[in-house]
Structure formats: C-alpha cells, structure tokens
Amino acid sequence: MVVTSLKTVGLDELRPLMPSDSEPEGATAKALRKVLGPKARIIWRGAELDLYARDQADIPESLRRMLVRTTPDAVVQPQSTEDVANVVSAAYDLGIPITPRGAASFPLGGSVPTMGGIVVDLSALRRVLAVDKERIVADVEAGVRWSTLQEVLRGDGLALRTYPSSWFSTIGGWVATGGYGINSLKFGHLSRNVQALQVVTPTGGMEWVDERHPDFKLYFGTEGQLGLVTRVVLKVRLPPKASEPLLVQFAEGRDAFAYAKELLASASPTHVLYFDPHRMHTFNRLMEAPFLREAHSLLIHTENGVGAKEAMEVAASRGASVAPRHHGSYLWRERFFPLKPKRLGPGILGCELTFDHATAPAAFERWHAMAAKAGLDPELEAHFIDGGRVLGLCTWLTDPRQTRAFTLHAALSVRMALAGIRLGGIPYGTGIWQAPLMPDRFGKEYARTLREEKRRRDPKGLLNPGKFFGIKSRYGNVLGLAMSPRMAKLGMALAGPMIPRLARRAYKPPKEHGDTLDRSRLECSACGACIPGGGAAPEGRARQPGGRAVDVPVHPLRRVRAGVPERAPARRGIRRARGDRRAAVRRPEGPRGRVLEAGPGLRGVPAAPRGGHGPARALHVPGADRGRAARRAAKEGIE
To answer: Over pLDDT 70: what percentage of the chain?
Structure first.
C-alpha cells in the first residue's frame, strides 16, 4: 500500500492572539483558554467578531435585526479534532451555544450565530493528512479547501471525483450543506463519494462513521445540527487523459432540455450545464464584449472522448448549433465563479431547487414570469445531476442599499421557492432563511426523524441553534411562529400576489455603486478566491516524509494588509496594486489589518494577515482574476 502523508506546518508555531489595551479578554474567551491552553487561537475583539456575524449572503437589515444576536462572544480556531471536542464539551456544560463555520460560502445563514455564543472556525483544520494511492482515497481535515486538495492530488497523479462550484469552500462545509455540484451527473451526491467521517457529537464526544453505518447519512445536509464533521475520508480517482467541453445552443429552452434527455439516454458525459439567454448575456457584460451567442445553451463536459461523438450526432439530428470550441472552454473555466455577476448589481438574490427533467422547463418558465412581473431580469442556470434530476438556480441583480426593494426581493425568493415546490421541486438548503421549507426539503417522515435525533443527541439545543428546525428571535417566538412551515406558506399565499407589484415600484436600478469603499463592500461576493489557503488559517507548506515540501496554492493576486503587499516591506506614501493602474492609498500608522482608503476599482475582501492572527482586509482588483483564474484552473489539471 502506497500512502503519502502530508502535514501542513506553521499552526503550532503561531503565538497566541494577545489582547489589545482597549479590549480585555472576555469571559467566554477566558473560559476557552482554560480548556485549550494559553496558545489557543481565540478571537474576542469586536471588529474581528463582526466578520463572523454574516455569511456570503446579503440579508435585509430588518430581518437581521430580528435575530437575537448574530455577533458571537468568541471565535475559536481549533488545531485538532480534540480541540473541537474539548470546546464543544465545555460549552455544553456551561450552556453556551456553538455555531460551526467553514468558509461561510453557503448563503442561507447556516454558519451565522443567532444567540451569540462561540463560533468554532473549522477552516483552521486545513491539513491533508494522507493520500492513499492504492485505495484511491484522501484523508483530510474538514477545513481543507477543495482548491487546495486538488493541488495536492495533482502532485500524486490523482484527481477529485466531484466538487462544488464554490471552489474555495471547505470539504466539511459541503458535507454539512449541499452535496451536488460539478460532476454529480457521473459520480452522484457527495455522500456517495465519501468513505468515512469523523464527527464531534453535540456533547463533546468523538466518533467515526463509515458509509455502512446507519448514522452516516444524518451528517449530510443537516448543517451541523447533529454533530461537527472534523475529518473526511474522501474517494478520489485517476485523472482523465483528456477532457473537452462542448457548447450546444438552441432557440428554445424546452428544446435544450429535450436534447439533454436524449443525450443522457445514449451517452455518459461527466457534466451538463444549462444557461438561459439572460445568463449568456451576463457573461458578455462581464467581458464587455459580445463574445458568446445569447441563446439557450448546454455546456457538455466529456472525458476521454466518452459521449463526445453522441453529443455531436444528437445535436445534428435536432438542428442545434455547436459553438466554437473556445467558447465552451471559457464557460467551463468560469464554473468556479457563479457569483461574479454580483459586481453588476451590486447585489444578487435568487432561489435554488432540484427538479425532475420533465418538470424543470415549466418551473424555469414560471420563475422567469414571476421575476419579470417584479421588474427584474432573471438568469436561469441548471446542473444536471444523477437520478434524472437537475439542480436549478434562478438569480437576479438587486441593490442592498435600497432597503424596501431589497426586502421585497428577498420575499420574492421565498415565493418563487414555494412555486417551485408546487411543481415538484425540492429546496437545496435550509439554514435560517429557508427553515420553513425544511419538511419540503427532506420529506415529512425524514424531517420527523431528524427532529427526534436532534432531541436525543442535543437535548439542550446548543448546537447551531435558532435555525433549521425552527427560528428564534429577540421578540420571543414571534419570528419562529411567522416562519413556521404552515404560517410562512399561509402568509405568502395572502401577501405573495402583492410582492411583484410593490417590488417593481420600490426598485430603482442604480446608476452608481457609491464611493470606492462602499463599492468594494457591496461588490465582493466573499467567494474566497483572493484568499491564499483560506482566511481563517495562515499560509503553510505541506511536507512529505522524505522532506519534500509542497506549497499550499496561492492565488495569483497579492494580498494587501493596511495597503502593504504581504511579502513586501512597508513604504510610505502610495503603492500601486498589481493589475490596476490606480493606486491604493495607505496610512502607515493606521491600525493593523485595516485598509484605510482604496483607489477606484478596488474591492475589499476578508483575508488572513501575516502570522494568521485573525481576519483582516485585502484588496482585490476587479477583472484581474478573469484570465488568471482560468489559467489556474487549467494548471490544476481539472479542465
């Protein structure tokens, strides 16, 4: 048996976070330090805690204020599963709520606290522990990013089977939330691609469950309600010898879905993506050129030539047009950046459900009509997955600064999800904002089983509380009652017909995105693309037993802390950001980890400052990742 063991060094050498003069260590942080020791990586300062009070989504402030407390009392960045178990055990004994968090790329509030307490930042668990070339599996900690694992596997002549479009999200996070993504058509749901999980229970115990264990499936998609996944044994594969994306286009959406159904009956492509003309138009807007034909499009990805011939033959028989090869290659490499349109908004909202092939076209037509009635220009996209289903997404641009319109657009998202459910759709996530749809997602019987497991495993209700099974707010149980499955559907049935008309009146397409810093805040999609190795843990190097070091991949865009590039000495005055002719202005005496002022065209995103002592701010040049990200995807060997 050939096993490559990898260890990311650097975490153990970090000095502990030191309290500032103005903010002494709080009671929760002190309790954690007693459990974990003086070198524990704990965050308690207000400005840093605020970064953990949200996830990737923009949420109407009116709804956010209704929650009890989204800012945690402390954040712990554990260095081992034992650390996680000790924290959870201590919190359970003290009655302190625990919220698990990875990269926070799932936009439904699953990683956002609702009652303060402790956030366990699992993205700090970022070691690739072993790669077994004979069993073709990888043993990884839950905080490892998919992009990082692919880089390590490529060095060992292996590749991922399936992975999310959130390329910089964590492996444990995808276990807890979704599970359908790229290559799910061929390899199925993530649960079919995992051999075993290590889990910390709600009371602080540790257990291993493999794919034959009766509790195995309980940890997929339950968003940390029944336990914290800290380690994953992931099935991987030999990389394909060749791969090719093919872009086939149609005049009508139903023709595209009929073609896909015929193709999948006769061939086995690895992945199939659908884009409507509005989504294709957005690709052109982002490139500032009419590069792509704006039609109903299917992006078909084949490997080793399997399915390519059939795809061309079926396309010819149906009179479809086949786009130039480089068009398909471009769209395939853009699969990692589904939120890039947000910079045009400067906000984005939507809904996401799975449908049968037969009902998906009708659902998409219904979604488009509902959004258009509200004065919006919706974009439709679908991933074809196993079991004869598609994962459908409808998104539209909005403006979080227009509070009334933004709240109505968020309500429209719920209304569209309910319309999709009536057409046989199944919600893809739960979190806070889709808690009323939890029985529709899992089915009433399995939802009842999950509730019973929650009561049995977590009798105090301290693990990720105030969401998923029921919402709690600062106004007692008013919000929870209003967002119970029955009341939410009743309220939407009564008020829903008015939402499109009110939204059309309230929304004014913005001409400007505000000043530079405001634009930076709004346009950032928090995808993690510009954060080397992740924002919670420092950069590191993986070492193999022979002493050979493997660099953790670094995004080509340099980070800037207080206006100073990560690997450059501080200079006074003005320093230019690479990839933009305009300058980022810094004040050297400013607070550590804070960007004081940025030149036009720069975006602020969370990042890890040097040494890994908590999140800071970084600068990202819009558009600069367009070509570099595509080249990086190609370099990683996952075309």
So the answer is: 73
Q: What are the backbone dihedrals phi and psi of residue 5, each rounded to the nearest 5 degrees, phi first?
A: -100, 130
Structure tokens at 104: 């926070």
Contact partners, residue 368, CB within 8 Å, separation at least 6: 276, 378, 380, 394
Cβ–Cβ < 8 Å for 102, 173: yes
Residue 550, sorted as left (phi over 0), alpha (psi -120 to 50) or beta, turns out to be: beta
The answer, yes or no, to whether residue 584 has pLDDT greater than 90, is no
User: Residue 82: what pLDDT?
Assistant: 96
pLDDT at 493 over 90: no
pLDDT in tens, 225-266: 999 999 999 999 999 999 999 999 999 999 999 999 999 998
Q: Which fold has domain 1-239?
A: 3.30.465
142 Cβ contact partners less than 8 Å away, ≥ 6 residues apart: 102, 122, 125, 170, 171, 172, 173, 175, 228, 229, 230, 231, 232
DSSP result, 490-549: HHHHHHGGGHHHHHHHH----S---SHHHHHHHH-----TTSTT-SSS---EEE-TTS-E
Q: In Å, what is the CA distance from 499 to each residue of 49, 61, 505, 516?
A: 35, 18, 10, 32
Residue spans of the domains in the chain: they are 1-239, 243-410, 435-506, 516-627
Q: Tell me how far apart the alpha carbons of residues 377 and 238 are, in angstroms, rounded to a whole number.
A: 42
Mean pLDDT lowest for which of 48-62, 66-80, 317-331, 522-536? 522-536
Check residue 490 and give its pLDDT. 72
Q: What is the CATH number of domain 243-410?
A: 3.40.462.40
What's 375's DSSP letter? T
Reading the block at residue 113, the tokens are 């606290």
Residues 281/401, Cβ–Cβ less than 8 Å: no
* DSSP element (H, E) containing 27: helix 27-36
Q: How is residue 162 written in tokens?
A: 């399936």
pTM: 0.78
Split at pLDDT 50, 70, 90, the class of 481 is low
Angstrom distance (rounded) from CA 325 to CA 307: 16
What single DSSP character describes residue 43? Answer: E
